[in-house]
Amino acid sequence: MVFSSHSHSPKTQYSLNKILNLIQTHISLHPYFYLFVSFLSIQALVILFARNPLLCFSNRSTAGKHHHDAVSVVPTDDCPYGRVYSYDLPPMFNIDLLLSNCTDLNLWNWQCGIVTNHGYGGGATELRSILPENLYRSWYRTNQFTLEVIFHYRILNHKCRTMEPESATAFYIPFYAGLAVGKHLWMNDTSKRDWHCKMMLKWVKKQEYWKKSNGSDHFMSIGRITWDFRRLTDPGKIWGSTFLNMKSMQNVTRFIIEKAPGDAHDVSVPYPTGFHPKSKDNLIDWQNFVRRFNRSSLFTFIGATRNWVNNDFRGLLLNYCYNESDSCRVVDCSVSQCSIDSSVTLKALLGSEFCLQPRGDSFTRKSIFDCMVAGSIPVFFWKRTAYDQYEWFLPIEPQSYSIFIDHEEVRNGTSIKEVLMRYKKEEIRKMREKVIETIPRIIYAKTNGGGVGDFKDAFDIAFEGVMEKIKEDKEWV
Ligand SMILES: *[C@@H]1O[C@H](CO)[C@@H](O)[C@H](O)[C@H]1NC(C)=O
Ligand SMILES: *[C@@H]1O[C@H](CO)[C@@H](O)[C@H](O)[C@H]1NC(C)=O
Ligand SMILES: *[C@@H]1O[C@H](CO)[C@@H](O)[C@H](O)[C@H]1NC(C)=O
Ligand SMILES: *[C@@H]1O[C@H](CO)[C@@H](O)[C@H](O)[C@H]1NC(C)=O
Ligand SMILES: *[C@@H]1O[C@H](CO)[C@@H](O)[C@H](O)[C@H]1NC(C)=O
Ligand SMILES: *[C@@H]1O[C@H](CO)[C@@H](O)[C@H](O)[C@H]1NC(C)=O
Ligand SMILES: *[C@@H]1O[C@H](CO)[C@@H](O)[C@H](O)[C@H]1NC(C)=O
Ligand SMILES: *[C@@H]1O[C@H](CO)[C@@H](O)[C@H](O)[C@H]1NC(C)=O
């Protein structure tokens, strides 16, 4: 399930996959951790954040409009877009949602990722078998639904955090909506999926600074896809919570792993992968490693079929890949324990020029980011898998870093292998270079605080983007 996201289709509700996800959301965190981090001094962090030029992005116009390239921007103030105030929510809305039972050794409970290590997960020691020492230490067993925990940690420790709401430009609501709703997604009682959301809004609407803006200078992060929070707009009105249908949420910006393309307040951010470098050197070592890796296969497909889906495209790709075993590496996640042993999947991605990325149960899929972090070039079959998501993070030109083959053409008999073989070595090298230079933008660095300071990761880009937007909105008014 690590490689699929999850559906809002009621048809698929009762699958093993869903039950696994459900179990994996029952996890924990030591409550005194937040006490500890709140004592970290802001001054100490400022020292960490001495601004060095951002590596890899020499041409601003190739990136999205929210990319603040340190090569051309020399900030005069450490917080050019102002400061953020993080609400001190009652623990029932965040840390109490992290239950305390998990073990790395148990298949059903493997993903301690959300609880451990401020949301980053424990070290991925299994990668020792395939990576040199200096590299495997940048890898963690990170849960794909941990975004809200990582963002919370990063904001609490951010140099631009203020403890005085009156000096804040923007307000962060550290509500773990994905964990609150995820627990109840597969149970019949829809009121339970809405309860925490309603209570949180009731709480926040009493706050002085909410009343001043009705939430338009507030933001949050949500660790599950947007369709898990839009029951009223679900065709069957069955799936998920109504959190994002609630009127009070209308003007709150939320970072989310898959957005609703029509909703300007949804901002899609990369799914967390297991790669979390601690420094720019760690990052560069990794970029060099994936650049030089001997990729002996043309392409790879990692995934499991969905037997209950009619005419399942992933099943088709799996069979195709088995049949083309000279050029395709298969990792069948219904056979391999993809979620437990990331060495199986990482080895396949490192060893392949391209990786096939069909849609997941929803349009997006965590595996897109696993693929790119390993320097493999993604092959998409639906435009909506990546091209209208992640605008702040992925290169603007789809063909600069990816291949598109329409799924209907594949069903009609187009050979994926033949399409991929048409690309020349030099074209492939260029695309891979684009993928490699995108790596810092799609990962969450492992830091003591707000940023690693010497490059901008996905969190930094998201944070600066929302701060700039809110600041501009306020100045315009
Ligand atoms: C930057 O990229 C744009 C669009 O890809 C291109 O037109 C422009 O020439 C590039 N500029 C530099 C300085 O490379
Ligand atoms: C934690 O796991 C143990 C062993 O599986 C179990 O006995 C215990 O009840 C669990 N505790 C909670 C709070 O779930
Ligand atoms: C679950 O919901 C469905 C549809 O609303 C209903 O028919 C069914 O009886 C419910 N099941 C239980 C166990 O409550
Ligand atoms: C907030 O919403 C209320 C009710 O809709 C409205 O009366 C009030 O003027 C709004 N305040 C702002 C600052 O938009
Ligand atoms: C959201 O913002 C728009 C435009 O500023 C405003 O018209 C609307 O009333 C706001 N919605 C809520 C619920 O405050
Ligand atoms: C790359 O791997 C292939 C297949 O394993 C092998 O034949 C080839 O010699 C390797 N090339 C290099 C440069 O290591
Ligand atoms: C398997 O590959 C062979 C040779 O490329 C091809 O003739 C055959 O139709 C393929 N079978 C399937 C099921 O794709
Ligand atoms: C696939 O084949 C069908 C039937 O021959 C045709 O109508 C359709 O346009 C084809 N689709 C693509 C994308 O080639």
From TrEMBL:
Membrane-topology descriptor = Single-pass type II membrane protein
Q: What is its main location?
A: Golgi
A GO CC term assigned to this protein in UniProt: Golgi membrane
Q: Which GO terms describe its molecular function?
A: glycosyltransferase activity
Domain Exostosin GT47 residues, every copy: 80-419
Family membership noted in the UniProt record? Belongs to the glycosyltransferase 47 family.
Protein name per its UniProtKB record: Exostosin GT47 domain-containing protein
Origin organism is: Penstemon smallii
